[in-house]
């Protein structure tokens, strides 16, 4: 199993997620980026070393990924990487677009001036981060922008459902998709404009287009990186 260059090593002072979730995030990114292939068995020791945990949270994290369909448990042999297809990506983005679109529409009906101001500041910060090429800041700011819209909708349960979908795509990896940052620089302001005008239909439309465009770009990016090359050759 190759190591993932996009997952930073942790230091003792870092504020850490619950350990199984951290393991799940690490392995999930290995699967999505093609660092591990379908049918490959995952050894617990290298994962534990890479994340800086013991084998127990590694097993718990892999069980989380089993429930998401990223790995399968083979009795007496361990965890094996499950197939991850373009159709899987389309399904994840479809669910995110529909749930997020509904939240954006609801937010348009009741968003506060304070929330609008925070979104305006976020867009300005995103522009500066894009100019500086700061991918870490871009990932954080993109997450915060969407979180602000979700909170403005005032629909906690729907936002929680969306969160279970969003976590299946690594936040830091997402901004490395070709064209994704430029897309956000264009469409975040369009969504903000719809929210300012209280235009629920436009807010839904912009959000769904924003998310579904990401699916197409991600699939093309992974194809260019050689993912699914064996399937295409067979």
UniProtKB/TrEMBL annotation:
The keyword Transcription applies. Residues 17-84 form the HTH gntR-type domain. InterPro entries: GntR_C (IPR011711), TF_FadR/GntR_C (IPR008920), Tscrpt_reg_HTH_GntR (IPR000524), WH-like_DNA-bd_sf (IPR036388), WH_DNA-bd_sf (IPR036390). Keywords: DNA-binding, Transcription, Transcription regulation. Pfam families: FCD (PF07729), GntR (PF00392). This is GntR family transcriptional regulator. The lineage of its organism: Bacteria, Bacillati, Actinomycetota, Actinomycetes, Kitasatosporales.
């Amino acid at each position: 199993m190759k190591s993932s260059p996009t997952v930073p090593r942790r230091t003792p002072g870092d504020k850490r997620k619950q350990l199984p979730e951290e393991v799940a995030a690490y392995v999930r990114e290995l699967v999505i980026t093609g660092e591990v292939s379908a049918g490959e068995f995952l050894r617990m020791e290298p994962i534990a070393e890479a994340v800086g945990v013991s084998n127990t949270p590694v097993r718990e994290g892999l069980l989380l990924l089993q429930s998401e369909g990223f790995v399968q448990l083979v009795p007496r042999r361990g965890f094996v990487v499950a197939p991850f297809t373009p159709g899987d990506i389309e399904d994840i983005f479809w669910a995110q677009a529909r749930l997020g679109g509904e939240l954006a529409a609801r937010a348009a009906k009741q968003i506060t001036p304070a929330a609008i101001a925070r979104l305006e500041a976020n867009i300005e910060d995103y522009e500066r981060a894009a100019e500086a090429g700061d991918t870490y800041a871009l990932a954080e700011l993109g997450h915060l922008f969407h979180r602000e819209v979700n909170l403005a909708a005032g629909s906690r349960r729907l936002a929680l459902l969306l969160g279970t979908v969003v976590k299946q795509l690594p936040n830091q990896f997402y901004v490395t998709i070709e064209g994704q940052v430029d897309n956000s620089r264009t469409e975040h302001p369009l969504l903000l404009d719809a929210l300012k005008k209280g235009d629920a239909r436009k807010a839904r439309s912009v959000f769904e287009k924003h998310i579904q465009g990401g699916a197409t770009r991600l699939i093309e990016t992974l194809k260019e990186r050689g993912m699914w090359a064996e399937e295409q050759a067979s």
